[in-house]
Amino acid sequence: MQEITTSIVLTGTDKTKERALINAISGLQQKVSKKHKGIIIRIEPLEFKFLEGEQQIRREKFMFFFWGRDVNKFTVKIEITARVVFIDVEEFDFEVNRLTSITSKF
């Protein structure tokens, strides 16, 4: 097993602040998998940094003038430093056995 420490920048978007942050954090495993080859055993967050956040407010109106409402969209950008424990499959030597098969047509 190998152990490394890595920093990953993640972004998330949703209608609430909490859901935007959850969407960002949920992409951690996928980003780590793309960055480091191997089978991931454990991802342990060590540090969390909030880089930036944005709130967009859009005014919607029914039939252009009735019953207006505000629609929020939150976007967050975070950086997570994590300790990753993984197994590098390329380290293992596999024995190669060649098998031949005989096919017959009836």
Q: How does this model look, in words?
A:
It contains 2 helices and 3 strands, in the order βααββ. It is α+β, with helices and mostly antiparallel strands and 106 residues long. The chain has a single domain, classed as 2-Layer Sandwich (Translation Initiation Factor IF3). A 3-stranded antiparallel beta sheet has the order 1-3-2. The protein is elongated. It starts with a strand and ends in a 19-residue tail after the last strand. The model has no long low-confidence stretch (mean pLDDT 90).
Keywords:
106 residues, alpha+beta, Translation Initiation Factor IF3, 56% strand, elongated
**Unreliable runs, pLDDT <50, ≥5 residues?**
none
Q: Tell me what portion of residues adopts beta-strand conformation.
A: over 45%
What is the third-level CATH name, the topology?
A: Translation Initiation Factor IF3
- Rg (C-alpha, Å): 24 Å
In round numbers, the mean pLDDT is 90
Query: What is the number of independent domains?
Result: 1
Strands of the widest sheet, in order across it, are 1-3-2
- Series of secondary-structure elements, N-terminal to C-terminal: EHHEE
Give the CATH class.
Alpha Beta
- How many β-strands, per DSSP? 3
- Provide the helix percentage: 10-25%
Number of helices: 2
The largest β sheet comes out as:
3 strands, antiparallel
End-to-end CA span: 51 Å
